[in-house]
UniProtKB/TrEMBL annotation:
Gene3D superfamilies: 2.40.160.20. This is Lipid A acyltransferase PagP. Belongs to the lipid A palmitoyltransferase family. The record marks 185 as: Role in the phospholipid gating. GO terms for molecular function: palmitoyltransferase activity. It is found in: Cell outer membrane. The chain crosses the membrane at residues 15-34. It is an enzyme of class 2 (transferase). Coiled coil: none annotated.
Length: 199
């Protein structure tokens, strides 16, 4: 096995490990907490049930296409933003479930070029409350959250848990979905968006 193949195998293993470590506990932890009958236990039970049901009963599959990474100019030195990559080439796949209230649940795994033009994987579960404000039911707006794990080259691809807001605008099988990564000066404060195509 040559060096390049070894690197690719190692990176793939880390991506899979990240997903297993941070997403699969969502299906297991609530069972241990259920006996406490607390608000936290109920929340974990709901989350676990939603993740499990979305995994076992997908209604559609999704293609994810990263579209834009924008570093908030008010939070960065210009010399940094001038050299950052804001075209996150990549691809991802997932599965969708629409619940009885019409809300969106999704599981996904995506890889894209980060700010330093290095590959960054992210995987997890997402939920959005969906509104259909027009007579045309194909048009929808969404607001929710995602949680899962990512890994970055500048952090040696150590798995990092993420909890981020989600928002979307969709029509028919196409959805423009986005998040905002908060941060401090010269760190974080990034708007990240992608297209999600349902098939």
């Amino acid at each position: 096995m040559n060096f390049d193949v070894e690197i690719n195998v190692t990176l793939t293993n880390k991506i899979i490990f990240s997903f297993i470590i941070f997403v699969s506990p969502l299906m297991v932890l609530p069972a241990a907490m259920a006996s406490q009958n607390s608000v936290l236990g109920d929340a974990w039970n709901t989350l676990s049930d939603n993740v499990s049901q979305t995994w076992n009963e997908p209604q559609h599959y999704d293609l994810y296409v990263p579209a834009i990474t924008w570093h908030a100019r008010f939070a960065y030195d210009k010399e940094k933003t001038d050299r950052y990559n804001e075209r996150p080439w990549g691809i991802g796949f997932g599965q969708t479930r629409w619940d009885e209230s019409g809300n969106w649940h999704g599981l996904y795994l995506m890889a894209f070029k980060d700010s330093y033009n290095k590959w960054e994987p992210i995987g997890g579960y997402g939920w959005e409350k969906i509104w259909r404000p027009l007579r045309d039911d194909n048009f929808r707006l969404g607001l929710g959250y995602t949680l899962g794990a990512t890994a970055r080259d500048n952090w040696k691809y150590i798995p990092i848990p993420v909890i981020l807001p989600l928002a979307s605008v969709g029509y028919g099988p196409a959805t423009f979905q986005m998040t905002y990564i908060p941060g401090t000066y010269n760190n974080g404060n990034v708007y990240f968006a992608w297209l999600r195509f349902q098939f």
